[in-house]
Amino acid sequence: MDEMSERQLRNLLVRANRAIRQNRPPFPEYTNSRLRTYTAATGHARETVRMYQFWFRTRGCTYDRAGQCSMCNYGIGPEVDPRRIVRSVRRRLAEVPEGAHIYLSPSGSLLDDLEVSPELREQLLRQVAERRPALFAFESRPEVFTEEKLDVLRTLLPDTQIVGQVGVESWNPEVRSLCHLKPTPQKAYLNAAGMLREAGFASIANLTLGAMGLSQKEAYDDTLAGIRDARAAGYTTQMVFPLSAKSGTLLGWAHEQGMWEPPTLWMLVRLLARTADDKARDGEAGDLSISWFAPVIDEVVRSRPDGCDRCRPAVYEALNEFRDYPRAEKLAEIAGWDGCDCPRRTAELLSGDSDAQRDFRSRLRRIAARWTELHVSATPVASPS
Asked: How many angstroms separate the CA atoms of 145 and 69, rounded?
């Protein structure tokens, strides 16, 4: 297995990822949309607002079906009837006041014509426009961005602040392709940032902390570099997602095998404190944001970034305050925490590498070898003629 080329390694990991995903129960046909609300801090001033997030069912993310995204589990479903989706979203939009902040999301990319047809997308956007939202947010893979699609958004929402979110994951192409299984070329991320900027839209680069195969130190260094490189590429906001182990994903399976652990909450604190003020001026909020640092353990999320029972509430409180106003000063108090050993253990993880003799390719080969051992049958011996 150590002689395996990177191309062979990636192909094997993709096959494993696809096999694991096939066992996920699909969304039921009667679940056509969902609405959840949450508090979000938006814009340069970090105004605290109520966000209305609409999810609508699709056949599933196109790239999910290709075995990409080692860590995502946004679900799959049977083919949809667009008329039912439109009716379902319309009913839920009726609950939203005019001038609200609205996030519209399928299971993958809003701008992907294979997942969301142009006709369905336009119908849904026209419904959103009827609420005259102050802000409209969406997420898409960079491969599917075009100037024409962004022009449609601006035409349908002429007076709305629009935010495009892009799943960068890692700015390192090798980490992104081998650890996240996303082979998206670097140019696509640069082009997406440029198109959003030219259209007058804000942009968010989603960056993960804790990719499959990375040691804790490698993960920290990768996200640190990713934040600064995405900034340099022109993204308005850098949003850090510390990864959890989710069922139905290759990352979740690696966790079950004892071959991956989530990053610690203290690793996230150190990362944010180090990068928050890089570009911020006096009196201004920074360009960092965070998400998914406190998911509920359930049938999907099996393990999450964590501390101990003593420090967890204090860290959550500090991270929530940071999300509202992302400057290092918001983390100064928690940085002096001495109520448990969690900060010290994280510092030890980041001061060296407990698996220093291996890099992430070696760890990925170990994961691939484990999968092969458990799931790939031996080639049958041909019967003598």
From this structure: 19
Query: For residues 84 and 29, is the Cβ–Cβ distance under 8 A?
Result: no
pLDDT tens column, 82-91: 999 999 999 9
Measured CA distances, 385 to 378, 380, 382 (Å): 21, 15, 9
Q: Which residues contact 31 (CB under 8 A, 6 or more apart)?
A: 57, 77
- β 161-169/47-56 pair status: unpaired
Beta strand 245-246 pairing with 135-139:
unpaired
Paired tokens of 224: 């640190």
Which residue carries 């170990």 as its tokens?
366
The whole model's pTM is what? 0.93
Residues 194, 230: Cα–Cα separation, whole Å:
12
User: Alpha-carbon distance 157 to 126, whole Å?
Assistant: 8
pLDDT at position 282: 83
Which residues are within 8 A (CB) of 144 and not within 5 positions of it... i.e. 6 or more apart? Answer: 109, 111, 112, 113
